[in-house]
Amino acid sequence: MIAETDGPTTTQLADTAHEPDTDDDRTEPDGLDVYSDALLLIDALERHDVTDLPELETATLVNLYTLLSDVQRDANDFRQEVADVLLSRLHHDRPVAGQYGSVQRTSRRNRSLKDDEDVLSMLEAEGIDRERVMTVDRQKVDEALEVTTLTESDVYEIDESEYVRKAEVDDDVKESRLQGLKDRLAASEETEAEELQQEIEALEERIDDLTSFRAGTEVQR
What we know:
Oligomer: single chain
């Protein structure tokens, strides 16, 4: 199990918090759902004023909810994959820090009862009546309701609540929008690269001019 914390922790393992991140290391992950859905979500967040949700149109809210649901699911799946790899690299009580936080390996205990008859027999052997530990079986209660005149409300405390759930996802629309975003990002990167190259060339020309001016001044002296 991986435990997360935002606070500072002492670590006896390698500290990766200050590893340099360069643009050269950035590549588009292939086939990673959380990346694609996160791009779509960021695009939606940037195109709408989400600070005032009641003012948004219903279709916009549906889009936001759908994308948030997809990102949450994909992130949880990928988070578990990352945790599985981390488990082999962490030691108990030895947190390891990254740039955005730290994690550590911990353990938890799960219990499940053995066979009912075995448990009851062992308890009875110790002087514990089985009635003291017997509970109502919901499945058997439901079966009894089908053959009696009792209603569900007679034996259950019922508390109904309403919630929103994702009904379906239009993958074709998502893929089309995602490809458009990727094309825009690629075009933006090319434009930035061209602008940077122009700035470098202008700077080189300026340096050449200054160098030539200084050389001419020295000759005159």
